[in-house]
Amino acid sequence: MIESSKNRKRWLALIVLCLGDLMIVLDNTIVNVALPSIRQDLGFTETSLVWVVNAYMLTFGGFMLLGGRLGDLFGHRKLFLIGIGSFTVASLFCGIANSQDILVIARAVQGLGGAVVSAVALSLIMSLFTEPGDRAKAMGFFGFVMAGGGSIGVLLGGLLTGALSWHWVFLVNLPLGVLVFILCFFLLPGGRDDGTHARLDLGGAATITGSLMLAVYAIVGGNEFGWTSARTLFILMAAWILFIAFLWIESRVHSPLVPLRLFKLRNVATSNMIGVLWAAAMFTWFFISALYLQVVLGYGPMQVGLAFLPANLIMGAFSLGLSARIVMRFGIRGPLALGMLLVAIGLACFARAPVDGNFWLDVIPGMTILGFGIGLAFNPVLLAAMSDVDQSESGLASGVVNTAFMMGGAVGLAVLASLAAFRTDHLLQAGISQKAALNGGYQFAFMIGSGFAFAASLLALFRLRESQVTSAEVRHAA
Known about the structure:
The protein is an all-alpha fold. The chain contains 17 helices and no strands. Helices cover about 80% and strands about 0% of the residues.
């Protein structure tokens, strides 16, 4: 009876962890639909609008690995509560924001809280479920909820923005955050792992986050201040110096945020390069296509949400077990290469979408192909990242590649949004209409994003090495 009660409690704890991380996933997709409304209400420019996304992604990526180390030192439940609490409070400030500065700062705090929640949630699942079979089921359920959150986020973002206002895409987090915070006290185990020797790498987290934020800041302002201006070059130089400092710190600290020795492993290094390219392409899709649908085609927020639904449903179906079966049958290299090729084709479809685009001819084909591509490639890239490391370091390898996703998305989106604005300005100077010039900029960004995805496909095909360990793990999980 006691054993049954303990077993039921840990599955209830899994639900709480999934609800907490669901908030983070929702926030990644729900905001994209509201971006045009936010831009109009708070007066963002086309390029500065990316900070609504990037402020979140940079702090999320920069502090996710550090969040896991903090959990080891001070207790996973304590850090999960801090993460949920800070994310919920930041959501309140996002929801009531009446200026660009308040919204961007609150989004950065959201990213910090989200980083802690994501890192600690995975650690808690690993400690709650020690049997391989139960752990596989728990991780499968966790993955399904995360994929489903993407679909819910797009629809909910469209509904809330259309029926109420963009403020509610953030305020909707408040009741869920409070509920999760309360349930944590009753369901999550307290204390911390015995025998841990983790140490804080504050220097590593500060230098890499500062480096990337400065780089993105320079890129976002490149069109306005000039790419060869003293201001732009100075900021880029400062970003490079901080990055060199990060590498120096990571090579010398006892417990580095990102152990550089991991990148000597072929599959780890390749999967991280693929992750950077893929994230740049994927965030371009979410960000630029939402603007294309609303600004060029004139869709309402709810219509934008429904336009994304096919892709998110397909991605959810892959996460429910289809991707694992494909990898079990064909390995990691083929599905990953094919998935990234499909992403490249999907973005190329959007790169030819005209000003007077038709939903069935110019939107749905690209959305559907992207859904298949991302769904097919997601599990293989994570498995590739973990295939060359020992089981004891699989969580660390997964965290590194997830950080690469966030950083690649942040920098890639900043670059492509700036290139889109540059192309738009050039077309306006040539006498093209405002809407056609905007569409020309979006097409250019989609084309570059497609090139990123194609490069990731080539890397997967020619650089990845198949691993029997990976196949065994997938077979066991399935």
